[in-house]
Amino acid sequence: MRADLELIYDWVPQGAHVLDLACGDGALLESLARNKDVTGYGLEIDPDGITQCVARGVNVIEHNLDDGLASFCDHSYDQVIMTQALQALRRPDKMLDEMLRVANEGIITFPNFAYWRHRVYLGLRGYMPVSKSLPHAWYDTPNIHLSTFNDFEQLCREKGLVIVDRAVGVGERRGHWTSKWWPNLFGEIAIFRVRRR
Amino acid sequence: MPDSDTLAFADRPTGSVGLVTPHIAQFDTPLALACGKVLPEYELIYETYGTLNAERSNAVLICHALSGHHHAAGYHSQDDRKPGWWDDHIGPGKSIDTNRFFVVSLNNLGGCHGSTGPVSHNPETGRQWGPEFPIVTVSDWVASQARLADHLGIERWAAAVGGSLGGMQVLQWTITYPERVANAVVIAATPRLSAQNIAFNEVARQAIRSDPDFFGGWYAEHDTVPKRGLKLARMIGHITYLSEDAMGSKFGRDLRSDDLNFGFDVEFQVESYLRYQGDTFSTAFDANTYLLMTKALDYFDPASLADGDLAKALAPAQCPFLIVSFTTDWRFPPARSRELVDALTRAGKAVSYANIESPHGHDAFLLPDPRYQALFSAFMNRTARELGLEETR
Q1: Is B301 a catalytic residue?
Q2: pLDDT tens digits along B111-150
Q3: How high is the pLDDT of residue B193?
Q4: Residue B31 lies in a domain
């Protein structure tokens, strides 16, 4: 599993009912269901991802996240997980509201735009950053709302949300010790666990 | 153990179940219908493909749509031009893989392809049932299908599968006999008809009933058939099965000849196509059956029996569901499937849903499509894996 998914795996409690937004091939939900008796659904828009989920026996619903979560009732899930999709949404702030309407807790991961390699790309070389976590060119990227650890924390403050946990992912590994102290500089992937106050 | 109908068919196309022969099951136990009437006895015609395993755990039920029947796959004779109506999806190596599954496909009660229906003999009156054949509902069909399952010694279906009206029967199975369905596949269906759907059905019924040859449904006794009515009904139906784009790309505004002839004969290709479809259907299908089938569609509304709450109606269901819709289906649009999916998630049921990109409208459920087939196969393979099914041939 991807490094950020391994961390999230540990954050999901035994027997939880979860919604996994942009669940991809369903790997996270499959291992959560198998080892932690977790139930719930993945939402996905990619046809191949959906077929892979079905093949694994993961419940998956074709759904465009930009349509919101109106079809899901208030407080109907324990957790809503969204990995690597926040930055591709039309309105990430509204999705955050929606996630915490549907569940008590949200887990969110996204590429940190302030990662030092990105800063070098833009600050020194003068190009839009391209990296493992941001693999697209500026003109064809689905990532239309890039942000940083600091940006996300500020949005949580404005919304009055509690940050329960914060972690850092770098590439395929978990964060180097430096990223723990200076996540906004050394963290490639931002990982947050948030709740309503 | 029932034998497979599949015979060796020397030059059968690969992936075909080959030559098949229908069977008839007779039922003497009276069947109480939703309308209050009782059918004292009846017959169901069905076909099977593949081999039932020793545990009888690999049976898949196919439920047919409005004008469908039991002949879903394979050929009745070496001279058949076309295979059964769902041959693209049933056969060795296909989505419903007959190397693993034992497929049962029947003609529903009230049908006109061999099961007891309006064209059958009414033992009480000594004449054809005709318009006196009771109106049957989706629940009635499911009850009769359960008796067919008993007859075949099938305790529980590995999967119940259906498109359109067939999908509604699958839904009803999961509500009425939840313990007898291990998996449910509901394709291009809806939990209830919209006012527009009912309106189209009513136009079709009026076309049939206002045909001077209809004789209040006793046309057989007048040695005639309400061909014009049936033709119109089919033409209207056919328009709703295709998408605007599909019709546009198939026919556009093409003319049959080079010039306009300023008359009312067939000029546009689309007119010719619709007339051909209508003509073919009007001699092959029974008008009273058509009326019954459209009524079964109109009446289906499981939520109405659960305070209008579809999630509550589906509460008894126990099995995983696969729900599939098609982007250009405007007869039962993706939003209707999504309604069903949302009710299932609210009820906490195992469900997966895909909305397949297709230009073919409602008819897409009958046609091959790489994504549709990959998804359908993935679900059926998982079903086989979970039930521990091995290849039976």
Answers
A1: no
A2: 999 999 999 999 999 999 999 999 999 999 999 999 999 9
A3: 98
A4: yes
Query: Mean pLDDT, to the nearest integer, of B192-205?
Result: 98
Q: Is the pLDDT score of B1 beyond 80? A: no
Q: Give the CATH number for residue A103.
A: 3.40.50.150
Residues B359, B258 share a domain: no
Nearest CB to A73; choose among B346, B351, B371: B346
Band of pLDDT at residue A173, cut at 50, 70 and 90: low
Q: How far is the C-alpha of B154 from the C-alpha of B146, rounded, in Å?
A: 9
pLDDT surpasses 60 at B3 = no
Question: Exposure string (b/e) for B329-363, b if CB count within 10 Å is 16 or more?
Answer: bebbbbebbbbbbbbbbbbebbbbbbbbebbbbbb
The larger pLDDT score, comparing residue B2 to residue B365, is at: B365
Q: Is B151 a catalytic residue?
A: no
> Which of A20, A21, A151, A45 shows the shortest CA–CA distance to A93?
A151
Of B16, B67, B144, B164, the catalytic one is B164
Active-site annotation holder among B329, B358, B360, B369:
B329
Tell whether B343 is within 8 A of chain A (Cβ).
no
Burial of B309 (0-12, 13-18, 19+ CB in 10 A): middle
pLDDT for the residue numbered B113:
97
CA distance B235 to B226: 14
CA distance B193 to B294: 11
Which residues are bridge partners to A39 per DSSP?
A17
pLDDT of residue A171: 58
The alpha-carbon gap from B101 to the nearest alpha carbon of chain A, in Å, equals 17
pLDDT at residue B259, as a whole number: 86
Q: Classify residue B370: in a domain, yes or no.
A: yes
A47 vs B contacts (CB less than 8 Å): 354, 357, 371, 375
Which among B299, B320, B352 is the end of a domain?
A: B299
Q: Position B339: which residue type?
A: E
Set of chain A residues whose Cβ sits within 8 Å of the Cβ of B382: 54-57
> So what's the pLDDT on residue A2?
73
Of B353, B374, B375, the CB nearest to A61: B353
Please state the φ and ψ torsions of residue B373, each to the nearest 5 degrees: -70, -40
